[in-house]
Design goal:
This protein is α+β, with helices and mostly antiparallel strands and 555 residues long. The chain has 15 helices and twelve strands. The strands form three sheets. The protein has a five-stranded antiparallel beta sheet with strand order 2-1-5-4-3. A hairpin with a 5-residue loop joins strand 1 (202-206) and strand 2. Helix 9 (236-242) packs antiparallel against helix 10 (246-256) and helix 12 (348-376) packs parallel to helix 15 (507-517). It is rod-shaped, with a radius of gyration of 45 Å.
């Protein structure tokens, strides 16, 4: 690859030699013409010397050009030294013919020295400078005109030789290093192209102006496009046309300058769903470049749908069995009491006991069915932007008024970003979910216990990939109760599973359903430390900054 001129590298030797050959011929022709026309009264020896100089210059330039440019031989060090010595001798002859000390061509020694510094190593450039100084001194000495000006010029030649030799050597080293880096980059690019071309994942890069900068074969196959049709053109709208949401994910990454780790597009015209992640490369000028990596996850989505369907059927079966069990016991008690009431021989006191049992078990059935209906009807009906700080504060205030919270310390802590954190959801459903978490903590903390509710805005990757967001509102509820036994952690969100006497086992199940309905998740975490019991953490996807008109309270 031909190296171009660069501020940090030297031009290639052939280009420098081309200018030397041309300058050599032009200078010899000019001296010859001057000798013939301008110096008519000059001695014949001068004209003969000019003629010989012209012939030597033409012959040298022709032979050298044939060697380097026609035959294509690489100019070796001996060849370059010969060129420098010839040019030094040629300039010496010109200076001698044009008056020695009085010659106007003495400055040509500087050009010869500079050319030697460019073409030769630092020592070679210095040697040519010394040779030029010695020859110039000899020419001036033969003319008998030695003075301080001549010594100054010789000193100038030596200085130029040192400076150009040093700079040439440094630039050659830099050029060699840059050449190595260029070779490594070229090999790296070839390796990268081979790797990206061979992987099954689609990879495409869009520059800061939305134009397609790179696309691999897998991406073209997945999207059903050809690179030549889109390369270098704005493609965000077209990407959304062939894979709904892909262009929007890239545009969002470029706007926020935050990568998207997991995102799912809508179905393509061929029925595919793509799983997408993005990265962003910030540049000094212009907008950021965004690279999207995506795969066909259609089959995986179908398998997940089948798995969820099987899990739902299994859950329905377990739920039906649990509900039947929960209803069977009160019904058995009621039936037994009614049979005794309708029989003979029941005294007044027993009759009152049996009647109270029927009412109590009926109320229990009514409460159980009401909570079950609430659990079964969990769905987002009227979603809207909700300031979570205000919603959590209201739930905590309501829980603090509960009779079981008397004598307890309920603390509310707002972390970074909590005051402005908003989610898109159903206000009533989320309020009930948060209230259930807080009431559960209050009931387990017991008299004199402590409950702490913390709200903050965090980055988390546990949310649904379809939301293409890692910003989450985290609501953490901790209490000083006995905690959740290790063997029960995986069951606490199961319907009808309860460790509390008198509990229905539907409160935490409703919280989980509400979280999932909003694309969130709820977990049982490790105790916070000594003296603390259970910690429940609810994650909900947060809206981007400014996503709600209303603002929460300033904690």
């Amino acid at each position: 690859m031909r190296r171009r001129f660069s501020p940090a590298t030297l031009p290639e030797p052939r280009r420098v030699l081309s200018w030397i050959y041309l300058g050599r011929v032009i200078l010899a022709v000019a001296i010859f013409v001057a000798a013939v026309w301008a110096w008519r009264g000059a001695p014949a020896a001068t004209t003969l010397a000019a003629t010989l100089l012209l012939v030597a210059a033409l012959a040298s330039a022709a032979a050298s050009a044939w060697h380097t440019h026609v035959a294509g031989h690489r100019p070796g060090r001996t060849f370059l030294y010969a060129q420098a010595v010839f040019d030094t001798g040629m300039v010496t002859a010109i200076v001698y013919l044009t008056g020695g000390k009085e010659s106007n061509f003495a400055a040509l020694f500087v050009l010869v020295i500079v050319a030697a510094g460019v073409l030769l190593p630092i020592l070679g450039g210095i040697l040519v400078g010394v040779l030029a100084s010695v020859l110039y001194f000899a020419v001036v000495a033969l003319g008998g005109g030695m003075d301080a000006g001549v010594l100054l010029q010789i000193g100038l030649f030596a200085t130029v030789a040192l400076v150009t030799g040093y700079l040439g050597d440094r630039l050659r080293q830099t050029g060699a290093e840059l050449g190595e880096v260029e070779t490594e980059l070229r090999l790296l690019r070839l390796d990268t192209d081979d790797i990206l071309g061979g992987i099954a994942s689609g990879v495409l890069t869009v520059d800061g102006e939305g134009r397609l900068a790179y696309v691999n074969r897998a991406a073209m196959d997945l999207l059903g496009v050809e690179a030549h049709a889109w390369m270098g053109r704005p493609v965000l709208a077209q990407l959304d046309g062939v894979a709904p949401g892909l262009g929007a994910a890239i545009a969002r990454t470029a706007e926020t300058r935050e990568p998207i780790r997991r995102h799912e597009t809508g179905e393509t015209p061929e029925g595919m769903v793509l799983g997408v992640s993005t990265t962003v490369l910030l540049r000094g000028e212009g907008g950021p470049s965004v690279t999207a990596i995506f795969q066909d996850i259609t089959e995986r989505k179908r398998l997940e749908a089948l798995r969820r369907r099987a899990e739902r059927l299994e859950a329905v079966a377990e739920l039906s069995a649990s509900l039947a069990h929960e209803i069977k016991n009160p019904l058995a008690s009621i039936r037994s009491a009614v049979e005794q009431l309708t029989g003979d021989g029941v005294d007044a006191e027993d009759r009152q006991v049996l009647q109270a049992l029927v009412v109590r078990e009926s109320d229990r059935l009514s409460r159980l069915l009401t909570e079950f209906l609430d659990f079964a009807r969990v769905r987002v009906r009227a979603p809207g932007p909700l300031p979570m700080a205000l919603l959590v504060r209201n739930a905590v205030e309501l829980a603090s008024a509960h009779p079981e919270a008397e004598g307890q310390a309920l603390a509310l802590d707002f972390g970074p970003g909590a005051a402005e954190a908003c989610v898109q959801g159903d206000e009533d459903l989320l309020h009930r979910a948060v209230l259930n978490l807080v009431l559960n903590a209050v009931q387990w903390a017991g008299p004199g216990g402590k409950v702490e509710v913390a709200v903050e805005l965090r980055e988390s990757e546990i949310l649904s990939p379809a939301l293409a967001s890692t910003r989450a509102v985290r609501i953490r509820v901790s209490d000083t109760g006995p905690g959740v036994p290790a063997g029960s952690v995986e069951h606490v969100f199961d319907p009808f599973f309860t460790l509390r006497p008198g509990g229905t086992g539907l409160g935490l199940a409703m919280v989980q359903r509400a979280a999932e309905a909003h694309g969130g998740a709820v977990f049982v975490d490790e105790p916070r430390g000594p003296g603390w019991g259970a910690t429940f953490t609810l994650y909900l996807p947060a809206l981007p900054a400014g996503g709600a008109d209303a603002e929460g309270p300033n904690p």
